[in-house]
Amino acid sequence: MYDLQQKIDRLFRLDPGVWGLDDYHFLPFLFGSAQLRGHKYIQPKAIHEAEIVEEYAKEYIYFACIRFINSVKTASLRWHSPMLDDISAVKTWDKVNSGMIKMYCAEVLNKLPVMQHFLFGSILPYNGPPPPDSSTVDPHAGHAHPHAHGLPMGNVNGAYTQVYMRI
Question: What is the rounded CA–CA span in Å between residue 117 and residue 125?
Answer without folding.
Answer: 14
